[in-house]
Design goal:
alpha/beta; Rossmann fold; four-stranded antiparallel beta sheet; 10 helices; binds adenosine-5'-diphosphate; binds magnesium ion
């Protein structure tokens, strides 16, 4: 077993009816690195994220995290093991505060059940947990430079800030692997620049990052290695330089409508 790989996909395949959305994909992501997954729309990128985070169970193949099989485990268990993600589309509660949006992402991490929630007001253990959730949330907001907006409504943030808020929510669960699904989509160049800086900062803290993104400049600048998906198959992998001049990759992109 290769212990340097934090996440490993072995022959991962998923079929939806007649469609093979992910087809025999192998991948190894080393600790502390930034890995990008690129490919035309519909290639299966988000589906791979859904498999890694337990939303879908693959039809075949295995997912290993820290050398341990996690294939088909439920999402909350996978979160507890240290995998967090953001989604392609913003999923925030607009009329809740920035801070509460982050806190809500951690419920699967606390041992708080219904009874202790009801009796929690008097329970020192629950109070302690609540305090820890608050601290982790503030730390994550600080990292994404949103701490001073913590009492504002999420909907009052700019678009770029809302996307960063989602990353903060993921970070507050204290992951070792962070999955980002098109984090720069819809951002202006300045927002992208800020986001890039923050992703590097997250990497410097020791996290491993698995990134799906269409913006090639963003991907090429940030990634240590890149895997390319087309019709569910991995058609190329390597350093940004290698992938950029790979003829299969160029062909896959030329034939299709991408941003
Ligand atoms: P990408 O993120 O690369 O744009 P997706 O992973 O979202 O692509 O989708 C890959 C393919 O799988 C698409 O053809 C999509 O329609 C299909 N797909 C994804 N999820 C489902 C599902 N739950 N049921 C049926 N088809 C799905
Ligand atoms: Mg997608």
């Amino acid at each position: 077993m290769d212990m340097s790989a934090l996440l490993e996909l072995q022959n991962v395949t998923i079929r939806f009816g007649g469609l093979t959305a992910v087809d025999g994909v192998d991948m190894k992501i080393d600790r502390g690195t930034i890995r990008a997954l690129i490919g035309p729309n519909g290639a299966g990128k988000s589906t791979i994220f859904n498999i890694v985070t337990g939303i879908y169970s693959p039809t075949a193949g295995r997912v290993l995290f820290n050398g341990q099989e996690i294939t088909g485990l439920p999402p909350h268990v996978i979160t507890k093991k240290g995998i967090a993600r953001t989604f392609q589309n913003i999923r925030l509660f607009g009329k809740m505060t920035v801070l509460d949006n982050v806190k809500i992402g951690q419920h699967c991490r606390s041992s708080c059940d219904f009874l202790s929630a009801v009796t929690g007001f008097f329970n020192p253990k629950v109070k302690k947990e609540e305090k820890e959730i608050e601290e982790r949330s503030l730390e994550a907001l600080e990292l994404m430079e949103l701490a001073d907006k913590r009492y504002e409504y999420a909907q009052s943030l700019s678009y770029g800030e809302q996307r960063r808020l989602e990353i903060a929510r993921a970070l507050a669960t204290k992951p070792s692997l962070l999955l980002l699904d098109e984090p720069a989509a819809g951002m202006n160049p300045q927002e992208k620049q800020t986001l890039m800086k923050m992703i590097r900062k997250i990497q410097d803290m020791g996290l491993t990052i698995f990134l799906v993104e269409h913006d090639m400049k963003f991907v090429m600048n940030l990634s240590d290695r890149i895997a390319v998906l087309d019709y569910g198959r991995k058609i190329a992998a390597g350093s940004p330089e290698e992938v950029q001049k790979n003829p299969d990759v160029i062909a896959a992109y030329l034939g299709k409508d991408v941003d």
